[in-house]
Amino acid sequence: MWRRIILYRFQIDRVVRVPLFVALAVSAAVVLLVVCFLVLESADALRAIGPWRFVSDASWHPTRFADTGQFNLMPIVWGTLWVTVGAVLVAAPLAFLMALYLYFFAAPRRARAVRSLLGLLAGIPSVVYGLWGLTVLVPWISRWQPPGASLLAGILILALMILPTIALLTDAAFQATPKASADAAAAAGLSRWGALRAVVWPPARSGVVAALVLGTGRALGETMAVLMVCGNVVRTPSSLFDPIRTLTANIALEMAYAMDLHRSALFVTGLMLAVAVGVMVLLASLLKERDPYAA
Amino acid sequence: MTTPIITEQQDLTTCPADLAANAHLCLEHTAIFYGPQQALRETSLSIPRKRIFSIIGPSGCGKSSLLRAMNRLNDRIEACTVRGKVLLDGEDVYAAGTDMIHLRRRVGMIFQQPNPFPLSIEHNIDLPLREHGWRSRSKRRERIERVLREVGLWDEVKDRLRHSALRLSGGQQQRLCVARALALDPEVLLMDEPCSALDPLSSAVVEDLIVRLRDRLTVVVVTHNLGQARRISDHTAFFWSRDQMGCLVECNETERLFNAPARDLTAAYVNGQRG
Ligand SMILES: Nc1ncnc2c1ncn2[C@@H]1O[C@H](COP(=O)(O)OP(=O)(O)O)[C@@H](O)[C@H]1O
Ligand SMILES: [Mg+2]
Fold it and tell me: Which pTM value belongs to this model?
């Protein structure tokens, strides 16, 4: 009898393990395939033009042929970098404050209402944000500093888009504080600030890093909204009011008519995006591992 | 067999006059509710200064709730309301305008599950000290060493003060929690089954520690271990639960309560026949 139960358990273990492994393998394979595809498609351009010209050419005027075109992607890389970093710098502190408010100050009913609102905001399609940016934000900035479609507009729109995501995930990380710890902090007479340092932050830390990674990833990969509000001029921005083009917008704008080497050069753009995401995930894992009190 | 039942007319809030004289903590008609459900019947109780006071009774009779009313930790539970008064040195802790941080400095608490902060051993004590206005780093250091010595932890951890407190054993964690509470110089220490989650050896160590606190501060300890209550406490209150509502059955000097209980129910419980 017992042997049969144990055997049965063992079989369940096996039965569950197989589909789990398959799911894992499939996702790993998909990632690998996407990267392979990017590398293969960009290989033509990388071979004919050479990687060096993508960072050193005079400008971005791609053509079908290596000798007639200019292939400098750096202004686009800088534009992407600044708009992403700017959006995260604006959104992250606000999101953090919102999560603090939800954890420490809001009455439970109010907190629930705010959370559903944030969930709603996180679910609005990016094109809607873009539309709002195009019709409200850009004219507003333009009155102040023409042309309006600019790095600043991109930063603000992206910040608005990733704010709910980061806030909700940070809030979830805070809410995961064990009740016993929270009681300990209260019983020790800690202020809210003290409780944050002593019991909320240590276990929430990796979750907050994950929230930032997800937010940054979303900002980096966002296409429609930035395409609508950033102006799409290929130039390294020298101020917040300069128009920029991002890597994603570059692909979206030119894919429809790009051919041969031009097309392949757009895949190089995609490759750069993938590299940027990889670097970010690496940085995040470093941040996570530097946990001084890990038990 | 007739079950020992307390009638409504009987005075449930027994409390000898000699106790009330030297009272440090006084409950006056304290009742506790969770939403509409009453968890503790109106209770009056005096807890003498610098003595060990134990609370015994079966699970669910409101011992934890009562303890958590004394430092207002119940405030953290939205549905929980406390009626009546909880007097600390004659002042109602539930009075409007009570400084909660100050209250919790004066009234420390130890829980059943050791709950050190997920920080280093040193920071576990350092952070509360800083929060309560200890500016000088060297004074904090001294205090940390002193309380760790008091709980007998210093020699075990002095070389790894910067390691995570979560890596300590359960017994060590509980002693660290006691040290953390003692660091703030509390007048009252509330302990909610401080030994139930520990192995017998650690349990004995913590028990000795509690005994050493006698004459220094007022200890209120909830325990399921009747032997422990008998060994360490000066006074004991016995609670029972009826119709899902806790009530005080008898409160007396520990010796008297165990050897010559006034109520049949108490006698049955301390002799292991009920509960
Ligand atoms: N957070 C809570 N919400 C609702 N009811 C509670 C809560 N905590 C305790 N109670 C109820 O109050 C009663 C007393 O519980 P408790 O004080 O924990 O008893 P004890 O510590 O003596 O075991 C129990 O009936 C329990 O169900
Ligand atoms: Mg309890």
Answer: 0.85
